[in-house]
Automatic annotation (TrEMBL):
Superkingdom of the source species: Bacteria
Family: Belongs to the ABC transporter superfamily.
GO cellular component terms, semicolon-separated: plasma membrane
Gene symbol of the encoding locus: glnQ2
The protein, known as: Glutamate transport ATP-binding protein
Protein topology in the membrane: Peripheral membrane protein
Taxon lineage: Bacteria, Bacillati, Bacillota, Bacilli, Lactobacillales
Presence of keyword Transcription: no
SMART domains the record matches: AAA (SM00382)
């Protein structure tokens, strides 16, 4: 079953053509990694999946709903599609536990006792259950990003989007966040779409690697073909050579 389908999708910012004729299908349970140079359209593509960016032409089907249809309830989409950003966007005036409980309370109207139970389970899943009563400022950047992941998981989404979640972190904090992402990727029920420059992560857990440049998908391969074989596109080969060496 398909979770995400792009059909001839075009996206513009004024006169700037950000996405060119995107055709892409991501099946439920897949982990797909998007890579490419800065400005290639990766973040625009991933942000369009939950309606943060609106497409101009084509169809974008997410969990059976067409985002290009003005009658589609975008909030219904977002109940099932979580997103983790470069920056953590935690509420500074709320405890870690309160940060995680907020969206399920408002959006899902989850029972308060059940909400707290799920929040603590998600904190435990990211290894930070003991941080529940603290404020975000008391945690490191890596811990805050793990909290942001727990917050998304608490909504029990069918799909998680990661937009360069480790790019704002100090190097020594990256591994802890990547390890959490790996456990999510190995969950066969979860669909993950990840924009990252972490090639080790892509090599270990991705089902597919997509290479983008200039708003176009130039390569869509299995991880083995991309890393152990050779991309068919010359620009993708050059990018891979620079990244790996």
């Amino acid at each position: 079953m398909s979770m995400i389908e792009f059909h001839n999708v075009e996206k513009y910012y004024g006169d700037f053509h950000a996405l060119h004729n995107i055709n892409l299908t991501i099946e439920a349970g897949e982990t797909v990694v998007l890579i490419g140079p800065s400005g290639s359209g990766k973040s625009t593509l991933i942000r369009s999946v939950n309606g943060l960016e609106r497409i101009r032409e084509g169809k974008l089907i997410v969990n059976g709903q067409d985002l290009a249809n003005p009658k589609t309830d975008i909030n219904r989409i977002r109940k099932n599609v979580g997103m983790v950003f470069q920056h953590f966007n935690l509420y500074a005036n709320k405890t870690i536990l309160e940060n995680i409980m907020l969206a399920p309370r408002i959006v899902l109207h989850r029972d308060e006792e059940e909400n707290k139970k799920v929040a603590m389970e998600m904190l435990d899943r990211v290894g930070l259950a003991d941080q529940a009563p603290k404020m975000p400022a008391q945690l490191s950047g890596g811990q805050q990003q793990r909290i942001a992941i727990a917050r998304s998981l608490a909504m029990k989404p069918k799909c998680l989007l990661f937009d360069e979640p480790t790019s704002a972190l100090d190097p020594e904090m990256v591994d802890d966040v990547l390890n959490i992402m790996k456990t999510i990727a190995r969950d066969s029920s979860m669909t993950s779409l990840v924009v990252t420059h972490e090639m080790g992560f892509a090599r270990e857990v991705a089902n597919r690697v997509i290479f983008m440049a200039d708003g176009r998908i130039l390569e869509d391969d299995s991880k083995d073909q991309f890393f152990n074989g050779e991309p068919t596109n010359e620009r993708a080969r050059q990018f891979l050579s620079k990244i790996l060496h």
